[in-house]
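To: structure subgroup
Subject: Chain for Friday's discussion

All,

I'm putting the inputs and outputs inline so they're searchable in the archive.
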Amino acid sequence: MSFFKRIFSSEKKETLDKGLEQTKTSFFSKLTKAVAGKSTVDEDVLDNLEEVLISSDVGVKTTLKIIDRIEERVARDKYLGTDELNKILREEISGLLSETNSGEATEFEVPVNKKPYVIMVVGVNGVGKTTTIGKLAYQFKKAGHKVVLGAADTFRAAAIDQLQIWADRVGVPIVKQQMGSDPASVAFDTLQSAVTQNADVVIIDTAGRLHNKVNLMNELTKVKRVMQKVVGDAPHDVLLVLDGSTGQNAFEQAREFTAATEVSCLAVTKLDGTAKGGVVIGISDQFKIPVKYIGVGEGIEDLQVFNKYEFVDSFFN
């Protein structure tokens, strides 16, 4: 276990455990009922487990994958006791998450060959997009990086005002224009300012409307194209923010945005206070896009880099 892994565990593991508490309680309550009176993993247990996973917002496709894997193990090992089900589920879910997440990320890191490192943030209104940007800015600044924010969600005055509040709170500069301004113009000015200031990280907010896919795609494409006039390969990440507490609705949002633009990573927020944390597993598996950050509390420190080992450990602890 590396030094950074120990730091992660000691400082953040308790918050993660607490944030996933409702999800765990709900899941294992259902799982206990599913295997009641059974000593071996048979067809009835698998049918019940399928229902448990789907009702825990893991998603139908991902659930069927997990069930198939367990059926293969039953066929291979001939006998699996229900007391082993927890361990088996843990291993199979870790395996699924391994396909899209490295599992070793423990810090808010900036790629060494990207300066400024440009993150364009997308997502519908109400998912915690602006709050995630503010917390990201805080975490990057805390790690010693110089951060600039861009308020390119110009369709709502509230979005600009909220980002300004976060910029003031974190103590980082913000580039903004009036409501109704061209979002691409704001993005352009933000990157020019960041280059002038020799900034390490730029985080660009974008409109939170889930409108016509073609319009959304054209708008985000324009923002990207204009940014590339300043930083040739920007944005380096397109971060889609999803509200984990909405369960299956988060799947629909992921489907819409991944169809409209090239999403490179995900942030799943509001996992605390919900029993729908299983959505992280399903979304990560179905969209093959790495979950980079998770929100497990309201505090400014409660946005964490997603670490699959820590997540699965907390889920099954």
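Points worth raising on Friday:
Strands lie at 117-122, 147-151, 174-175, 201-205, 237-243, 265-269, 291-295, 303-305.
The mean pLDDT is 88.

D.
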